[in-house]
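Bit of a strange request maybe. I'm writing a small parser for structure token strings and I need a real example to test against, not something I typed by hand. Could someone generate the tokens for this chain?
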Amino acid sequence: MGEFQIDNIASAIATARSLNLKIRDQNIKHGITKIKSIGRLQEIKNGKIKNLCKNNKLFVDGSHNPLGANVLKKYLKSLNCGKHIILGMMLNKDHLEYMSYFKYEVDTITTIDIKNQPNSIKGYDLKNKLEGFNNVTYKKNIKEAINSLNLKKNDIILVTGSLYLVGEVLSLN
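Reply from user aminoacidic:
Good idea to test on real output. This should exercise your parser:
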């Protein structure tokens, strides 16, 4: 998923070829079909968390810096549906710059706490930092956040801002 993956694959192929590893094209083609990018624009298709939003797509992406935000923004921009971000971040990140990429791309932003991460920003404090954004709310956890969304058919939910958050959601799922 995402246009950036084509660039990543092309870089990997070019590197393998430049190292003269004698990898055949058929091996490359086969390898590409087996790629699993866990926590990188990963769609959650079933499980406990997915059951909370059965009629909508649920993605997790561990991006946490402006470059990652820009890649996600491009992907979101390509979609014709409602978009909802559930956000948790670490304290040492530039929260406003990261979220500036999504200001006009998403319908709602729900900040949450990242459980068991003392170096994360509390969801409530993150919400307050985003006061210039529309439709920002705070919920304690992923379940409350998903349940609070007013979802329409085909809307997507994107959980992002930290690999720790993605790991938590995947574990809970």
